[in-house]
Amino acid sequence: MDDKELIKRIMEEVKDEKLREELLGLVVEKNKKKDDTKQEEEEPINYLARLEILGGATEGVAKVSWWIALIVSVVFTLVGGFFSFVILVILLGYFLTPAEERPELPDLTLVVILSSLLIFGLAGIFTLLSGKKEYERFKRKKENQGQS
């Protein structure tokens, strides 16, 4: 007997109002428990599916952003290295010139600022590579735990 038939039968056969309300309340409560149980059963599956999809998407985005960060760090390192080399050549030329013939030292502010990109680039490369090693170590550890 489904719930509609049960409700119809209660309405027809039970004459006492209080008893009728109690029985209808029990039917509603039973349905609510069924709905809660059904929702609890479905929710973990949906949650895990969403988590799996999000994990795959997140991993793909992380890989792309890691490569972009690595390329930017390498460019910073190359540009900073070039301007550091320029500073060395200027200073070497300045100090190798005899004191009587030395021109005034040019303003190196912009060159020094651009050469600082070398430090940022090297720091970025170091951070990215050490982070990748740590991620691979974590992934191996997770796989080993899954096999146990």
Short description:
This protein is an all-alpha fold and 148 residues long.
How are the secondary structure elements laid out?
Layout: H1 3-13, H2 17-96, H3 109-115, H4 117-147
Helix pairs in contact: 1-2, 2-3, 2-4
Provide structural commentary.
The chain has helices spanning 3-13, 17-96, 109-115, 117-147. With 148 residues, the protein is mainly alpha-helical. The protein starts with a helix and ends with a helix. It has one domain (3-147). It is rod-shaped and about 120 Å long. It is built from four helices and no strands. Helix 1 (3-13) packs antiparallel against helix 2 (17-96), helix 2 crosses helix 3 and helix 2 crosses helix 4.
Output the number of helix runs: 4
- Structural domains: how many: 1
Rounded mean pLDDT is 80
Give the helices and strands as they follow along the chain: HHHH
Coarse morphology: rod-shaped
**Class based on secondary structure composition and strand pairing:** mainly alpha
**Major β-sheet profile:** none
* Unreliable sequence segments: none
Helix content: over 70%
